[in-house]
């Protein structure tokens, strides 16, 4: 559970930093939020890896969730366009992350089965 909370924090920190990067164009003081947000996001991501989540799974979820959440929030906050094609792209990203997660779970189950088998 801890690793998923840390991963959620890493995602939210990265999205905050990215949205602040856009906002900093008009308010340069937000560059401080950008720097702190990205650094804190990477620290949280490293803690996720230390907690035992596989790199491919952690990075895939972090990156894909960040892209999807940033696109949606940029529409709400900045009025950026969000077209049907972009929505389809977000759906494909989510499907890809699910495939990576399901594949990782299957691999972990196979590894557990082979480690528990008598020699």
Protein architecture, described:
There is one protein chain. The chain has four helices and no strands. With 119 residues, it is mainly α. α3 packs antiparallel against α4.
For the structure shown, list the relevant keywords.
119 residues; mainly alpha; 0% strand; flat
The count of helical stretches stands at 4
pLDDT averaged residue by residue: 91
User: Major sheet, described briefly?
Assistant: none
Helix content: over 70%
Poorly predicted sequence stretches spanning 5 or more consecutive residues = none
Concise account of the structure shown:
The chain has 119 residues and is mainly alpha-helical. The protein has helices at residues 2-23, 31-50, 55-78, 84-116.
Write the layout of secondary structure elements.
Layout: H1 2-23, H2 31-50, H3 55-78, H4 84-116
Helix pairs in contact: 1-2, 1-3, 3-4
């Amino acid at each position: 559970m801890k690793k998923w909370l840390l991963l959620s924090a890493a995602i939210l920190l990265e999205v905050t930093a990215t949205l602040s990067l856009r906002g900093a164009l008009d308010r340069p003081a937000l560059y401080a939020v950008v720097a702190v947000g990205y650094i804190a996001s990477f620290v949280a991501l490293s803690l996720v890896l230390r907690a035992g989540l596989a790199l491919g799974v952690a990075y895939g979820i972090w990156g894909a969730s960040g892209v999807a959440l940033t696109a949606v929030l940029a529409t709400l906050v900045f009025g950026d366009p969000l077209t049907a094609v972009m929505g389809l792209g977000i759906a494909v990203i989510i499907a890809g992350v699910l495939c990576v997660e399901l594949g990782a779970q299957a691999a972990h189950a196979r590894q557990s089965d082979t480690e528990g088998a008598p020699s």
